[in-house]
Design brief:
Elements: H1 3-16, E1 54-60, E2 70-72, E3 78-80, E4 86-88, H2 94-112, E5 121-128, E6 133-138, E7 144-147, H3 154-161, E8 173-176, E9 185-188, H4 191-197, E10 211-214, H5 222-227
Parallel strand pairs: 6-10
Antiparallel strand pairs: 1-2, 1-5, 3-4, 6-7, 8-9, 8-10
């Protein structure tokens, strides 16, 4: 066998072992200039309470003797106010929850003739959210569901999830949830433009329920790991 046959055979063998990483791009999705992004973010709509959320409750005056400052929304959407009963809060904004709790406390106070020399006030604050999250999927170090507790972009989300030697962020895209029967919204993420040129066009603001997918090759074998080369 001549060298002209051996060399191609060696290249094919090494490619099968994951020593050569594919370089061609595979863009997915569209670029939507109407979506919020870095340098042009939007505020989130009023927070809607859902099961699993933790709420801090303050009731004045102190003569009401409410001793449960932090409550968790139950799976049935209710919160337990101890001697003041249960209140349905799922699907309500924090302001609406305050009004519902105020009505409940005032009703129980009146019915039981509890002493109250001052107007009753109720304040509700979100302690932790179990219902607002996004997902980073694919070939990243920490894939899965992530609580959405602040205003972040896809760049933040991918870096927080962590890239691997065989990740292909240049093929990443964002899939936004939609109602049944509606067309999907798949947004292209131009990783090179974002990271190398500071282009914010596709550095979209992450919204609740977003799926960020980062494709990748096969995990490299031992030889590829030693040489620092990703898989195909």
């Amino acid at each position: 066998m001549g060298w002209n046959l051996v060399v191609p055979a060696m290249i094919l063998t090494l490619s099968g072992c994951g020593l050569f990483q594919r370089q061609e791009a595979h863009p997915v999705g569209i670029v939507d200039f109407n979506q919020p992004r870095e340098l042009d973010k939007t505020t989130q709509p009023p927070y809607v309470v859902e099961p699993g959320d933790q709420l801090a409750i303050s009731i004045r005056p102190t003569s009401i003797f409410f001793t449960q400052p932090t409550v968790t929304v139950q799976t049935d959407g209710m919160i337990d106010l101890e001697f003041f009963g249960e209140v349905m809060v799922a699907g309500a904004t924090l302001q609406d929850v305050e009004q519902r709790l105020l009505q409940q406390v005032m009703e129980v106070t009146r019915r039981r003739n509890l002493p109250s020399t001052e107007p009753i006030e109720v304040a509700v604050r979100l302690v932790s959210s179990a219902s607002k999250h996004y997902y980073v999927l694919g070939k990243v170090r920490d894939p899965g569901r992530v609580p959405l507790t602040t205003s972040i972009t896809v760049l933040d989300a991918i870096l927080n999830a962590g890239l691997l030697s065989y990740s292909r962020p240049e093929e990443a895209y964002l899939s936004r949830p939609h109602l049944p029967g509606m067309p999907p919204l798949i947004l292209k993420i131009d990783w090179e433009a974002i990271t190398k040129f500071g282009d914010t066009t596709t550095n979209y603001q992450v919204m609740p329920g977003d799926r960020i997918i980062v494709p990748g090759g096969r995990q490299p074998g031992l030889l590829g790991t030693l040489l620092g080369i990703g898989g195909n």
